[in-house]
Amino acid sequence: MIFLTNYLVRPPEDASAAMEPSIIQLTAPPPPTPTISTNPPTPTVAPTATTAPTPDISIAPVEITVGYYARVVETGGVGVTVRNGPSTSNQPVAVAGEGTVIMVTDGPTPGGEYEWWGVKLGDGTVGWVVGDFLVPTAAP
Asked: Which of 65, 47, 56, 86 is nearest to 134 (CA)?
């Protein structure tokens, strides 16, 4: 047993050779070779903002249209009542006389038994009128 203990504890005879440091030289891999493309780059076109075409209000539309004009007609000369909402129960704010050209700003909106259009008079008054008394027209 002593022999076995001596054998296990004793360093090997060539231990000095095993203990010498060795130098390992590392070399870096070569840098990557750039690839050259034979295809020219495709230009990127930036999107441009487009604007909606401006309506030509000098031409009368076929039907009453928001953003265009209308003429007051067929009132028997009394004009059409401009109200503060699309109903005969709303308060009158003005009367647009027969032949008056007004800007259509909204509509059509049903109200009671009529179809109503939001309008702006030449003096800046805004309100609602019954569509039965309007026809499309060109700008004044």
From this structure: 65
pLDDT the model gives residue 72: 96
CA 103 to CA 136: how far, in whole Å? 10
What's the rounded Cα separation, in Å, for the pair 121 and 79? 13
CATH topology of domain 69-137: SH3 type barrels. (2.30.30)
133: CB partners within 8 A, 6+ apart: 72, 73, 74, 75, 80
pTM of the model: 0.59
Query: Does the structure show a pLDDT above 60 at 3?
Result: no
- Under DSSP, the state recorded for 26 is -
> Where are the chain's structural domains?
69-137
* Residues comprising the chain, all counted: 140
What count of other Cβ atoms lies within 10 Å of the Cβ of residue 133? 19
